[in-house]
Structure formats: structure tokens, C-alpha cells
Design brief:
Elements: H1 2-17, H2 22-47, H3 52-67, H4 76-90, H5 94-101, H6 107-138, H7 140-174, H8 196-230, H9 235-256, H10 266-286, H11 290-317, H12 322-377
Helix pairs in contact: 1-6, 1-7, 1-8, 2-4, 2-12, 3-4, 3-7, 5-12, 6-7, 6-9, 6-11, 8-9, 8-10, 8-11, 8-12, 9-11, 10-11, 10-12, 11-12
């Protein structure tokens, strides 16, 4: 809730208070993603063996402290510093959370746990854009109070859960019930020696996820500005477009947990890439009509959810070190965000939405061709 209210609010705060153009907004977001990438790299290299029960509370507390100045600063330098610190601390939260929740799972059990997890953060995406759009039109500073309040709630919940867990463990120990430590590594049911073809699913899923996140960055940075500044609609309208995308994504996560036909299926990934290309094509032909943005939000809601699910599933189900794989999953997330936000903002400033969409369509078309070749070589 906090992150998504922040991402939505920053787009308009930077343009209205600091007179940023779309290229500068995209660059600001991209620089934050680079700090997120740095944190994921540190976790991938050094943190995967650490106890998540210590990393998660620490990162949550730093995120809270970094969010507070953003509601008060009227100078760029402190805004940059606070946002960068917030992104760096966030990168030490998501990889251990995902690894911890999916530890020791495979197959349908893994799909279901991923679905529950994704629906939890997608619920925040559903709520955040319309609330943020409404509050921003009323008083933009209120948004940043909501952001810090969300992060404070997160910190309080985490410390409460830790305390409750320790109390439960102490009670079990007092009656002689064996208790595993919180950071005990469970057995990974995936085979220790996997075929290189299984690893290939992970690589392809990461590339597909990267492409999907580039589109998502376009949807959450360039599109809201286009809807307000080019089409003449309000921030609330942009919020409802993002709201619709998230509702469909929430439903898609639930549907994907019910089926296993997409497990280890290259064709499924190719279909998703074709769907992304079609969504981009809709922006090219219908960028002057608000209806097309709602239609695209529905289509991408399902496609984006499927790409996220693929990436997390194969990160956990293949490879020797799932924790490091999930850190790489987050690194592809921030790289896609950085490329989509910075590249999309700069291209939009020079060539408009058509130029951005055409560039992304060409990139996706190349990706589809590569995926088809990979499928044929591994048939």
C-alpha cells in the first residue's frame, strides 16, 4: 500500500512541485530502481544465508524512516536522498519475504502459495491508485501521510508477529515439543541435479518478466501523465485505469493457482509475450481514446499477473539456490522498471505515446522470435 501510493503520488508531485518533464520523472524513478538493484545485488551476494527474521524488521524500519521526509521536502536533494534510501532498504525486504514464504514447496503447493502472496500485494495495488488520485486532488501532502502510516503499520505488524512467534516457541519448548528455529533451511523438493532445460525455463521466464515490467512501468509513469496532460482527464481517471488493471490481476492470480497446465510450458510464455505486444499495439492505434486505456488495463492485468507468477515459480522450482534466484527475480523487476520509466519518459517527451509504444512493440517482437527459436531447439 505504501509503495504503490508513493509511486503514484511521486509522478504528479515531481511535475507539479518541481516542474519535471516526463523524461525527468522517468529518470528520477529509474535512479531509485538502480538503488533497489544495488540492494538486491548485495542480498544475492551476501544476504541469502542470513536469517530473514532479522533482515525483514530492519529493512522495514529503514523504509519507514526514509518515507517521512518525502512529505515535507521542498528541495530536490533531500527528496532524491530519501527516495534512494527507501528503495535500497526495500530491496532487503522483498527477496527474503518471497524466499521464506515459498521455502520447501514445489508443484501445485508452490503455485498456491505464490497466488496467496501475489494477491496480498495486488490487493494494495487495487486500493492505492484510486485513493491516491482522490487524495492528491484534495491535498497532495495527505498522500505522503498515508504512505508513512502504511509503512508504520508494516513495522508494527512485523514486530508483533516476531514477538508472538517467540512466545509460541517458548510455550512449545516448555512442554517439551520439538521446535525448529525460525531460520532453519527446509529440504528443497526439487531434484539436486536438474536438466539444463529446466534452468532454461527460469531464464526465459525472467526475460518475459522483464518485458512485462517494462510495460508496467510505461503504464504507471507515462500513461497517467498522458491521460491528464494530453487527453485532459483528471488524476482520478488515471487512478481508475490502474485500479482496473489490478482487479484483473488479483483475479488472474487466483485462476493461475487452480491450474498446472502452464507449468514448464514454453508455449504459454510465448502466448504471454504475444499478448504484451498486442497491448502495446493498442496504445499505438488508440492512444487518443480513453477507452483503449481501460481495455489495455484489462488485458495486461491478466498477462502481467501470469508473467510474475512464472518468474517466481521457476525461480523457486529450478536451480540450486532458490534464495539467490528470487533475488535475481527482484533484480529483473527493478531493471524493467528502470528501463520502462527512464526510457519511456524520455521517448514520450520526444515522440509521444506512439513513439514509446512503437519502440516497445519492436523489442517485444524480437523477444517473441527468440522464444520461438528456444522452443524449437528444446522440443
Amino acid at each position: 500500500m505504501g509503495h504503490n501510493t508513493l509511486n503514484f503520488s511521486l509522478i504528479y508531485r515531481l511535475t507539479d512541485m518541481f516542474s519535471f518533464n516526463p523524461g525527468q520523472v522517468g529518470t528520477f524513478i529509474a535512479l531509485g530502481q538502480l538503488f533497489y538493484f544495488l540492494g538486491c545485488t548485495i542480498y544475492h551476494r551476501f544476504g541469502s544465508a542470513a536469517n530473514p527474521a532479522k533482515i525483514i524488521p530492519f529493512s522495514s524500519a529503514v523504509v519507514l524512516l526514509a518515507s517521512i521526509p518525502l512529505g515535507f521536502v521542498r528541495v530536490l536533494a533531500p527528496a532524491y536522498a530519501s527516495f534512494w534510501l527507501l528503495q535500497l532498504a526495500s530491496s532487503l525486504f522483498w527477496p527474503p519475504v518471497t524466499a521464506w514464504l515459498t521455502e520447501g514447496l514445489s508443484g501445485n503447493e508452490l503455485s498456491k502459495k505464490i497466488s496467496y502472496f501475489n494477491r496480498s500485494w495486488m490487493a494494495a495495488l487495487i486500493i492505492a491508485p484510486p485513493i491516491a488520485g482522490f487524495l492528491y486532488r484534495w491535498n497532495s501532502d495527505i498522500n505522503f501521510f498515508v504512505i508513512s502510516l502504511s509503512f508504520l503499520t508494516n513495522v508494527l505488524l512485523i514486530f508483533w508477529i516476531r514477538r508472538s512467534s517467540k512466545t509460541a516457541i517458548s510455550k512449545k519448548e516448555s512442554v517439551g515439543t520439538p521446535v525448529e528455529p525460525l531460520n532453519t533451511e527446509k529440504h528443497n523438493p526439487a531434484p539436486s541435479k536438474q536438466s539444463p532445460k529446466l534452468d532454461l525455463y527460469r531464464y526465459v521466464a525472467w526475460v518475459s518478466f522483464f518485458c512485462s515490467i517494462m510495460f508496467a512501468a510505461l503504464l504507471t509513469t507515462v500513461v497517467p501523465l498522458h491521460i491528464r496532460d494530453s487527453l485532459g482527464y483528471t488524476e482520478s481517471t488515471a487512478g481508475w485505469v490502474l485500479f482496473l488493471r489490478c482487479v484483473i490481476g488479483f483475479i488472474a492470480f487466483a485462476i493461475l493457482a487452480k491450474f498446472s497446465v502452464w507449468h514448464f510450458n514454453f508455449r504459454w510464455i510465448i502466448i504471454l509475450q504475444m499478448g504484451l505486444a498486442f497491448c502495446t499495439l493498442l496504445y499505438i492505434v488508440g492512444g487518443s481514446f480513453i477507452t483503449f486505456f481501460f481495455v489495455t488495463a484489462v488485458l495486461y492485468g491478466f498477462i502481467g499477473a501470469a508473467c510474475v507468477t512464472n518468474s517466481v515459480f521457476y525461480s523457486r522450482a529450478t536451480g540450486k539456490n532458490p534464495k539467490k534466484n528470487l533475488a535475481l527475480h527482484e533484480m529483473f523487476l527493478c531493471l524493467g522498471n528502470a528501463a520502462g520509466a527512464a526510457g519511456g519518459g524520455l521517448l514520450y517527451q520526444q515522440f509521444g505515446l506512439t513513439g514509446v509504444s512503437l519502440t516497445l512493440f519492436l523489442l517485444l517482437s524480437i523477444g517473441i522470435g527468440v522464444f520461438i527459436l528456444i522452443t524449437k531447439s528444446n522440443r
